[in-house]
Design goal:
342 residues; alpha/beta; eight-stranded parallel sheet; 13 helices; 8 strands; 35% helix; 10% strand; binds zinc ion
Length: 342
């Protein structure tokens, strides 16, 4: 029998709680609605309106849509017209313009344009640090001084900046028998950054630390649990060091839920700086019930996704049973604060 054919069935009989609704209405700070407005595959199945009604049935009051590229901003804003209460858009800055002499003017004008369109924040994709190059062919660092103008403009306009830097540490290691994400990386070798002459995971975290530290008045939401859900001690130190740093938990309950004691302490300690997010993409199953179960229940040993072989690795997770006042902050109030403070 090959390992890939192994499908163990757990004989453990423990409490199973169903959570189709959360204990408080939710702001999902990390979603990707691209397929809806680009009409990819879902054009006949979903419209913005019926996606909204599905999400509302799961207790989602509002989403932040991060799936936008600079050239489609106007188009996307039109699609969401009339639904602004439900969907808030964060948009990116095109780093290719770094090579133009008037980069600062471009940044200024872009953010002013975004403001007029009702956009409320910026999104930085993970290709910063791993892909974007300047005209000398050098990879652009996240803490590059030339980008400083973006973070200053964001601060002046009260735009939080959602940054996705790096990826799980296992993606920076060889795809071998010691890699905990090996099955996933065999299926997606393009997600592996090892041996490609790219910065290491540690180097990207160092850039992230400097980016946040050099711009203490800009609010950064570091996606995917501050880039290092595998090491909450590190993320905790970063949050202590940088009062302008927030994190979202999107696509990381697989990591958080396999260290329930550490995670519960972490959520309790940093309850004012953690945002609910799922990385929801309309081409995927809705994972809201699993997120709610992880945050609210004390259930043990359950799946973090709906796959027979869990997508990230063959482990299960545990609920952390957070108190209602902490849940309210994480589900809703922390996000509301970032979106409304002026
Ligand atoms: Zn995402």
């Amino acid at each position: 029998m090959l390992l890939s054919e192994y499908r163990p069935f757990s004989e453990l009989i423990v409490k199973e709680t169903e959570y189709n609704k959360p204990c408080h209405s939710v702001i999902d700070f990390h979603t990707h609605f691209g397929p809806v407005y680009r009409g990819q595959r879902y054009e006949k199945t979903y419209t913005a309106k019926n996606i909204i009604s599905i999400l509302k049935s799961y207790g989602v009051e509002k989403v932040i849509d991060l799936e936008i590229f600079p050239e489609e901003v106007e188009h996307v804003c039109r699609i969401w017209e009339g639904q602004e209460e439900f969907c808030t858009i964060f948009a990116p800055i095109n780093f290719d313009y770094i090579n133009e002499p008037n980069f600062e003017t471009y940044v200024h004008k872009t953010i002013q344009r975004y403001k007029k369109l009702g956009i409320k924040g910026l999104k930085v994709w993970k290709n910063l640090g791993l892909e974007y190059k300047d005209k000398n062919g050098k990879l652009l660092r996240a803490d590059d001084k030339r980008l400083q103008v973006i973070w200053q403009e964001a601060e002046e306009n009260h735009f939080p900046v959602v940054v996705h830097l790096a990826d799980p540490p296992a993606f920076f290691k060889p795809i071998d028998n010691n890699n905990e994400r090996v099955e996933e990386l065999i299926e997606h070798p393009e997600w592996c950054f090892y041996g490609k002459g790219l910065p290491s995971f540690e180097e990207l975290l160092e850039q992230q630390d400097k980016l946040i530290g050099n711009n203490p008045n800009t609010t950064f939401v570091v996606a995917h649990c501050g880039s290092y859900a595998e090491n909450l001690n590190f993320v905790s130190e970063q949050l202590n060091k940088h009062p302008n740093m927030y994190i979202d938990i999107s696509a990381r309950i697989s990591e958080l839920g396999r260290q329930p004691y550490t995670a519960k302490k972490f959520f309790t300690k940093h309850q004012d700086r953690i945002l609910f997010g799922t990385d929801y993409y309309p081409t995927k199953d809705l994972l809201y019930p699993i997120y709610y179960r992880f945050l609210e229940s004390m259930d043990e040993y359950f799946n973090y996704d709906y796959n027979i072989i869990p997508a990230k690795g063959r482990w299960k997770i545990y609920g952390i049973g957070l108190e209602p006042d902490i849940l309210r902050k994480i589900y809703h109030d922390n996000a509301e604060y970032l979106l409304t403070r002026l």
